[in-house]
Batch of 2 targets.
Target 1
Amino acid sequence: MLKNAASQMAGVGSNPLRHHHNKLWTWPFILAVFAILALGAISLFTGVYDIRGQADGKEMFFTTRVPRTLSLMLTGAAMAMAGLVMQLVTQNRLVEPTTTGTIEWSGLGLLSVYLIFPAPSLLLRMTGAILFSFIGTSLFFLLLRRIKLRSSLIVPIVGMMLGAVISAISTFVGLLFQMTQNIESWYIGSFSNVQIGRYEYLWIIVLVTVLIFICADRLTLAGLGQDVATSLGVNYNRIIFLGTALISLAVGIVAAVIGNLPFLGLIVPNIVSMFRGDDLRSNLPWVCLLGMGTIMTCDILSRVLIMPFEIPVSLILGTVGSAVFILILLKQRRSARTPR
């Protein structure tokens, strides 16, 4: 009954053809899977080091290229899912970890761990990033409850203001304790240092994906508001807590292992919902695939544009993401001006 109600309510205001998209293994999806596999193959054989012409090429292939490609796929899926859940819970398409301050809180968590432990392990850094991501995301949701939202633009503005404050605090603390190098290296999100032993925690993202899929119906109901969710038998506060925890887990892991990756959670869910509506369960595989494809494309470009040097992938993501952000704003402005 709950599942049926969720499906019916999630269809309100979404694509009227959404019920035709519930089948997963359609030809478009199969073609998308092959496209991702093709990008993965290109990523494996793209780089300055000639793995086919060197004696240790095979060893380098499995030490650096395979972990890098796998980390690209897992990271793309994680950030895209985090953006999707955030947009659903806040009922706002302009929200993602970059525009809510979540990623800045992760950076503050990493800095705090470095202050306490001079040479922290990856597990310690990841724990600090996840904990502070949870605190920051919870604070953002709490602020939204207390602010009267007259425009959808208020939500990302509040998030970016909060993120700017946290970023300023991180910079001040870094300057005070001479740790600015740690902050700068974190803000430059890059996959150049990924190798065996430095990316394995990203596999936790698979567990996060499964949990989001299991809770998809309840998260969809929570996105319709507290009154609707409660009337349909869902504990609204509990599901918001769970959604916040899953977002924080995904973002914290990525922040500790890779660094800051802006706007990925904004681009992908908006493109998917544009064609498929707003149902979380049926959109989740598409969001994961498109997230993988987006970040792999940006990473391949980062390696070939000025070869033999490498551009940080965060720079390309930030450029593309900011352009998409502006286009979404312009589209919403035109829609608001169109008479109904």
Target 2
Amino acid sequence: MADAAGGRQEIWVEKYRPQRLEDVVGHPSITERLQSYVDRDDLPHLLFAGPAGTGKTTASIAIAKEIYGDDWQDNFLELNASDERGIDVVRDRIKDFARTSFGGYDHRIIFLDEADALTDDAQSALRRTMEQFSENTRFILSCNYSSKIIDPIQSRCAVFRFSPIDDDAVAAHLRDLAAREDLEYTEDGIDALVYAADGDMRRAINALQAASATGDVVDEETVFAITATARPEEIEDMVTEAIDGDFTAARSTLDDLISNRGLAGGDIIDQVHRSVWEFDVKEAAAVRLLDRLGEADYRIAEGANERVQLEALLASVALNADE
């Protein structure tokens, strides 16, 4: 678990990052198509879209390692558009890399992470750069929302949509990592990690490493404590209390989650949304809850007070309890 040279703890996300496309977890159809591009030596510009922690960056690095081998770092430029949003990064850094002479390979790869953070002007400049250096440069763009990428860029790329990773795949990968690190764990601990991750493999691995650092068995209690995640039954109790008209009890549960457990309002909304159809409530109540949930989520995103909005959500549900 410790670094042999300095005794430092490695970050498991990097330590166990897949080195080949075939090792990328959760997207067999995508990796098969990408592998065919590599095998045919016919790599187009690529656009990877999907939530965080689903393998977009990992797949990009794996492509570079398969094409360039040990020379991959000399032929692979990684930029983060959320840090370098302006048009200058497109005109300067990308062009400088694209123009640099290199030998032995037909093209180099520029990986632009969080490309949906680029301004429209920067994206327009990027489109022209993609045209100008198409003979010797391939672009891989990564984003959360492909709709924020201008159409001229989308039309120049093969688009791959990375969905949240299946729970079974996350669980299997976590068990494999636990075995490699010789960790003691329980199945309810793995289930808790999968629930907290919600399809995000990076979050799952980081949570496993954090839970292992306690020195105890990785179990449900440890996982929920270190991930600041409410147990599904706590969320269900809070919502059920409100639906039953007991606003005081629902508010008390909410207060415990926010004040004592440190959960953010957005996290609570996400957990309620994920679980609403699993609650044992009538369909009309679930629909009403979702309606108010969407309104609260929007208001919080616009800067409203989280606690006020969540209490208003529970109050609205409780007021309609008898309908």
